[in-house]
Design goal:
The complex is a heterodimer.
Chain A (H helix, E strand, L loop, with lengths): L37 H16 L24 E2 L5 H10 L8 E6 L2 E7 L14 E2 L2 E2 L15 E4 H7 L1 H7 L10 H10 L2 E7 L9 E7 L4 E3 L1 E7 L4 E10 L6 E10 L4 E9 L5 E10 L4 E8 L4 E10 L5 E8 L6 E10 L5 E10 L4 E10 L7 E10 L5 E10 L5 E9 L3 H9 L4 H17 L5 H18 L1
Parallel strand pairs in A: 1-9, 2-8, 7-10, 8-11, 9-12, 10-12, 11-13, 12-14, 13-15, 14-16, 15-17, 16-18, 17-19, 18-20, 19-21, 20-22, 21-23
Antiparallel strand pairs in A: 2-3, 4-5, 6-7
Chain B lengths: L26 E2 L6 H11 L3 H16 L23 E2 L13 H9 L2 H8 L2 E6 L2 E7 L1 H5 L3 E4 H7 L1 H7 L10 H9 L4 E5 L9 E6 L6 E2 L2 E6 L4 E9 L7 E3 L2 E6 L4 E8 L5 E11 L4 E8 L4 E4 L2 E4 L5 E10 L4 E10 L5 E10 L4 E10 L7 E10 L5 E11 L4 E10 L2 H9 L4 H17 L4 H15 L5
Parallel strand pairs in B: 3-7, 6-9, 7-10, 8-11, 9-12, 10-13, 11-14, 12-14, 13-15, 14-16, 14-17, 15-18, 16-19, 17-19, 18-20, 19-21, 20-22, 21-23, 22-24
Antiparallel strand pairs in B: 1-2, 3-4, 5-6
Helix pairs in contact in B: 1-2, 2-8, 9-10, 10-11
The chains are: A alpha/beta, B alpha/beta.
């Protein structure tokens, strides 16, 4: 992006001069960085400069078509304050998640308040990490001395910064945001202190998911949860992020989740967003899929007045597979805004996107997806489907599925549909004595269930079904 | 094509439009566009005051509006508005007989086969040469039915009451930068009025020819089909290939009143130095139907998204689009469907072929606002890539409000299957022939929508474009 940088001169002269700008109320607490590695201090400060120099996305910005960056206005917000003991207790009490987890982390206002888990000791602590080489994760860069399967390293962000600074230096937000929220991503990097870093060495397989809860508390609280997953050869991990509000307050989350999947590895990720209906959520995510690796990522939009995800998948190794899934069921005047990019860089890669929205009341969804097949990415298979089930006369769905094909021998298709519940299906159920209301709910549940089922993890699917069921219950 | 006359036997079949005659202009607005240019055109054309005002307003809007490069291709920045001439004509009135048409112009259209086609199957022809119509004629039977078929300048003078009622109503001046430019300097184009209940059996045709270098052609077409009337209109276009850029920016407005039906067929074969930036839109009232059948083969950059506003109940809109992009070409085409009444239906079928380094883009808009019932849209766009450096993009936008509608959009991208080619080669066809057959098969169901004479021509043009792209 070429943007005039009015305050670029102040870059060298620390941050004091820019404190007068309108955005200064969000000045990061740089003292938190005192024992962080130098590279991170520099990047956080540079990100703050970048945030201030970037303009707020304009109304006519194509990346915000049918939506508006104004919905994420930061004016009335402040960085979340240290949680009270009562909030901590409540958060721990409310963090009902999966039955079996490999590890569980609970954050309130970007402060870690609880952690539990076994089998995550950093056994293979050095020399085990994939090193990016020529855009491809080299298969041989992993520890071969370690005998037997290595354990997965899973640490809170602040700790990982200290103990695994080298890994973070290599992977932390290296893929720039490009779907409209460059400014917000910079703000995230300037503030980030909470979240989880998962490093799975070669052959490490986690049977159960790692579960992370991010709670917000306080009117106008702004949090910056971070998730980073890096997997070595044939490693397998599942991570579930929950975002929620402790009280019925207007809060905002600007989350970043980045995944780097080494050769043959598997990453499954779920972002379950259940913020209060006054809140706003932004989730910026990038996935880099190496040779023969598979990444599945689901965006589940349940809460928030405005919820937006910007999800990018870069397929950089032959045989890479990316499944991008999304579900929303907005009601009232909820707004869901979904922007995706399937970026095929290497030949013989596969991506499949399936987003389904069931809309009620005056709710609105926007889907803008692009399949981009770069020069040389021959034999690409790329699919993209967005389906909207409109359940009210005032609901509105905008779909912008896109294709940009620059290679040969490509199989690509996309589809977008908008339709009400079919009268035949409704009749069938009602003829069997099921009430109109119940029939509609069943059909809508079935409509989104096939997205959830693609996760192919029974207990995870069951858990997410419960969340969806709970949302239906709230809608009555 | 005919080759019996000696003076055209030297034309190679693959560049049938690539020839030119020396310029002989009585009226020339000079390079660049200012208020003086607009006044000059108004003076030459003896415009009424309201038209002069309309032009001035168009100029102001044009100068104010930015280039739409925030979504469109950066190639637009290569258009230098001060390097075009905006009005060129020999000051002659359009002729009713080919015998009266100046020799150069007559030979031009002879070479393009227009008089021959007219005799064969057309109900009326208008032939535009640079800024003004050189020939305009409608068959007597059709004229007796009350059909008006004139160039727009004449219609302005002769039928202001119908003209003014609809002129600029479907596409307002400020719709986009290029419709504003057209409003400022428009000249030529057709005006058609079909009286209630009249069904014009044979197509009416217009042919647009650019002969001069560094020139912009800005025709303005307005077609009104009164209640229950039916008409098919066809347009074709060519220009010689110059080193410098040529600009073609037309505005076409269609009005189909209750129960009327308009079909608008375009075969665009501009030379590859032409920027073809056209705004086309139809208004369909109750039970009316507007169909755009659009084929883009030529030009350097085409940006054209024919639209239908379905304003009356049960109105129907359809866009059938074929685009062929060869090396050096960008066909940025698509459709716009605005549903503004209950039970309206629209259909978009687009097929594009990218050859060599050509780029084909589909851009679509489907809009179904709230409080409507029973609207339907179907969109299908398929792209075929011939070479490994060919490029294709699809950018649809579908906005639906309410739960009483159904829309579906589907797009696919594919190659000519190796099995098909192998099958045909086994049966003795060369690889190039097999490829050409395959490509023609890909668009065959759409080509059938064109009138017979056009579909034959179209297949030939596609074969020519395919030549040399394989093996």
């Amino acid at each position: 992006m070429s943007i005039a940088v009015p305050i670029s001169e102040s870059k060298a002269s620390t941050l004091a001069p820019s404190a007068s700008s309108a955005q200064s109320h969000l000045t990061p607490d740089f003292t938190r960085l005192s024992d962080a590695p130098a590279w991170f201090q520099n990047r956080a400060k540079a990100a703050w400069d970048e945030y201030q120099s970037l303009p707020m996305p304009a109304l006519k910005d194509v990346a915000w078509r049918y939506s508006s960056a104004k919905r994420l206005a930061l004016d009335s917000l402040h960085t979340a304050t240290t949680p009270t003991d009562a909030d901590k207790q409540q958060a721990i009490k409310q963090s009902h998640g999966l039955e079996k987890t490999a590890a569980k982390f609970i954050f309130v206002n970007d402060v870690l308040v609880h952690t539990s888990g076994t089998g995550l000791q950093p056994v293979c602590s050095t020399g085990i990490l994939p090193v990016a080489k020529d855009d491809e994760l080299a298969a041989s860069q992993f520890d071969t001395q370690a005998t037997g399967p290595c354990h997965v390293i899973c640490l809170p962000f602040a700790e990982a910064l200290k103990s695994h600074g080298d890994v973070l230096e290599q992977y932390l937000m290296k893929r720039e945001a490009q779907l409209g929220s460059e400014k917000f991503a910079a703000l995230h990097l300037a503030h980030v202190r909470a979240g989880v870093v998962v490093i799975a060495p070669k052959n490490a397989v986690l049977e159960h998911p790692i579960e992370v809860f991010h709670w917000t508390s306080g009117e106008g609280a702004l949090v910056f949860p971070h998730t980073l997953i890096v997997t070595g050869d044939h490693a397998q991990v599942t991570v579930v992020d929950h975002h929620g509000s402790l009280h019925d307050e207007a809060t905002q989350s600007i989350a970043v989740a980045d995944f780097v999947a080494g050769p043959g590895s598997r990453i499954t990720y779920v972002n379950a967003q259940e913020l209060s209906l006054k809140s706003r959520a932004l989730h910026i995510s990038s996935t880099t899929v190496g040779r023969d690796a598979t990444v599945k990522a689901l965006q589940l939009h349940l809460g928030a007045a405005f919820s937006r995800n910007e999800t990018v998948s870069d397929l950089i190794g032959e045989g890479a597979r990316s499944e991008m899934l999304g579900v929303s069921l907005p009601f009232g005047d909820q707004n869901v805004d979904m922007r995706t990019l399937q970026n095929h860089i290497a030949p013989r890669t596969y991506s499949d996107l399936l987003y389904k929205n069931a809309l009620y009341d005056q709710s609105k969804t926007v889907f803008a997806g692009l399949i981009q097949v770069e020069k040389g990415a021959h034999y690409t298979d790329a699919y993209q489907k967005c389906r909207n089930l409109l359940n009210s006369d005032e609901a509105e769905a905008a779909s912008m599925p896109g294709l940009e094909i620059n290679a040969d021998q490509v199989k690509c298709s996309h589809g977008a549909t908008c339709a009400p519940i079919s009268a035949d299906e409704l009749f069938y159920l009602k003829a069997r004595g099921i009430s109109d209301h119940e029939s509609r709910k069943l059909i809508a549940t079935g409509f989104i269930e096939d997205v959830i089922a693609k996760l192919e993890n029974e207990s995870l699917v069951q858990h997410l079904d419960n969340l969806i069921e709970a949302k239906f219950a709230r809608m009555i | 094509m005919t080759t019996e006359t000696p003076d055209i036997s030297d034309i190679k079949a693959d560049n049938v439009g690539d020839f030119r005659f020396p310029e002989d202009h009585k009226y020339n607005s000079g390079f660049g566009i200012t208020e003086k240019t607009v006044d000059y055109i108004s003076d030459v054309k003896n415009d009424p005051d309201w038209v002069r005002e309309f032009r001035k307003h168009g100029l102001k809007t044009f100068l104010e509006k930015p280039m739409p490069t925030h979504w469109a291709t950066k190639d637009l920045e290569n258009i230098h508005f001060d390097q075009f001439r905006y009005y060129l004509s020999d000051g002659q009135k359009p002729k009713r007989s080919w015998d009266d048409v100046p020799e150069d112009v007559k030979r031009t259209f002879d070479r393009l086969g227009i008089p021959e086609q007219e005799r064969k199957f057309l109900a009326g022809v208008e032939a535009q040469y640079d800024s003004e119509a050189a020939y305009s004629n409608v068959k007597k039977v059709v004229e007796e039915q009350g059909v008006i078929f004139l160039n727009s300048s004449e219609a302005l003078q002769k039928h202001p009451e119908i003209f003014r009622k609809w002129f600029g109503k479907v596409i307002p001046t400020g719709d986009n930068k290029f419709s504003a430019l057209n409003s400022a300097v428009f000249s030529g184009g057709s005006f058609i009025y079909i009286p209630p209940g009249v069904k014009v059996k044979h197509p009416l045709q217009a042919y647009f020819r650019i002969n001069s270098e560094q020139f912009g052609q800005f025709e303005r077409t307005l077609i009104i089909a009164d209640e229950g009337a039916e008409v098919m209109y066809m347009e074709g276009c060519t220009a010689p290939k110059f080193e410098t850029a040529t600009l073609h920016s037309a505005v076409v407005e269609l009005v189909a009143l209750k129960g009327a039906k308009i079909q608008y067929v375009t075969v665009q074969n501009w030379s590859s130095n032409v920027f073809n930036l056209v705004t086309k839109r139809g208004l369909a009232m109750e039970d009316a139907e507007v169909r755009w059948i659009d084929c883009n083969i030529g030009s350097r950059l085409t940006m054209k998204y024919p639209g239908v506003i379905m304003k009356g109940k049960r109105a129907r809109g359809e866009v059938i689009s074929i685009a062929l992009a060869n090396t050096g070409q960008h066909q940025d085409t698509g459709a716009k469907m605005v549903h503004a009444a209950d039970e309206t239906t629209s259909n978009i079928i687009s097929k594009s072929i990218s050859i060599g380094k050509g780029r084909a883009t589909y851009r679509g808009l489907v809009h179904i606002p709230k409080h409507l019932k029973g609207c339907k849209n179907n969109t299908e766009c398929d792209a075929l890539l011939i070479n490994s450096s060919s490029r294709t993009d699809t950018y649809p936008a579908i906005n639906v409000r309410g739960n009483q509608h159904a829309t579906q959009h589907e797009a696919s991208v594919s190659q000519v299957s190796a099995e098909q080619i192998f099958y045909m080669q086994q049966r003795g066809l060369s690889k190039a022939e097999a490829m050409s057959l395959s490509v023609n098969g890909f668009i065959n169901d759409l080509v059938r929508e064109f009138p017979m004479e056009y579909s034959v021509e179209l297949k030939r043009l596609i074969d020519l474009e395919m030549e040399g792209s394989v093996g």
